[in-house]
Amino acid sequence: MINILFTCSGGKFVYDLVSSLKSQKDLKIKFIGVDVNDNFNQFFLDKFYKVPRADINSNVYLKTILKICLKEKIKIIFPLSENESRLFSKNIEKFKKKNIQIPISQFSSVNKIIDKYLMMKHLSEKKIEVGNFFKIDNIDDLDNTLKSLGFPKKKIILKPRNSSGSRGIFVINEKIKMFNNLLVDRLCGEGNYKSVVSIIKNNLGSLNDYLAMPYYEGPTYDVDCFTKNGKVLDYLARLRIYKNPFSPTNEGCVPIKNKKILKYIERIVKAFDLNGCCDFDIIMIKNNPRVIDISGRLSGSIGAGVLSGVNILANSIRVMKGKKKKNYKLKENLNIYPVSKFVIK
User: Fold this and answer.
1) What residue ranges in 25-183 does DSSP mark as E strands?
2) pLDDT of the residue at 339
3) CB within 8 Å of 265: residues ≥ 6 apart
4) By the 8 A CB rule, do 183 and 168 touch?
5) CA angle 335, 336, 340 (to 5 degrees)
6) Which is it for the CA torsion 206, 183, 132, 279, positive or negative?
7) What single-letter DSSP state applies at residue 323?
8) pLDDT tens-digit readout, 279-289
9) What Rg value do the Cα atoms of the chain yield, rounded?
């Protein structure tokens, strides 16, 4: 029996993660979930614990998790948030001493990946194509970079260096007269320069710790990946089928294998010496891949790939437990969509 702990277990797709592992006959797993919120149906977990937030008091959080791990004899932890990923990578030795595995890279790599500017800077220094990008700390910085980014002929995107779920993203588009909210529950929108700056001043006060890039349009992929010592052991690219490109959750996908994407992410994985689970956002520009974001943890929607016959999560567990990974055969041309459904416990 392998006792596994998922953080953020109240997440939208965690049931799919658990189901994808229960379907593997060679893996006998006990599922332990933790979350700051206990207001969700926990029937798919063998045990659940409510925990404090990692970003408010990291020491209390770590002590709580370690106590749960020892009580439940946890062998593997899968972090499902950026804050937790950074915290676990920084304190991974504490868990290693207790023979608890966490499929996550060293702190120096995770810290660069989470910070979008440092991520782009590191890849650029490694001669990996990432396009133009600029560090933005105030409106003057933005004004000084607009021309270099092709504005006003081209759209510009502003991203917080440390954020997730499309929070705080702004698209500057001179063809739009008024600011349009792109998401109803968080600050994310598109407008001309004047309207975007006005929104920033009214809501943020100023720009600080931002990244400015050209706004790229093209086929976009979520790439699930399991790595070891800077090498890709398993991967699957999922073409996004989104009505809203800024949607913080998966709206649909088409799983594929793509050699160009694989070669590109292999260079990134080597550049950061990645180890464990990671997730790439890749856009194809004139049939050439370009990274727009990286997460140094397991993707919450990785379960979508299981419907295509490829179970990267199961393979990651096999490798961590010293077993041989399975060679799954990808089912071609599947359109996969998330839906609410009834299940029998």
Assistant:
1) 29-35, 47-50, 76-78, 134-136, 156-160, 169-172, 180-181
2) 86
3) 223, 225, 232, 235, 280, 282, 289, 291
4) no
5) 145
6) positive
7) P
8) 999 999 999 99
9) 20
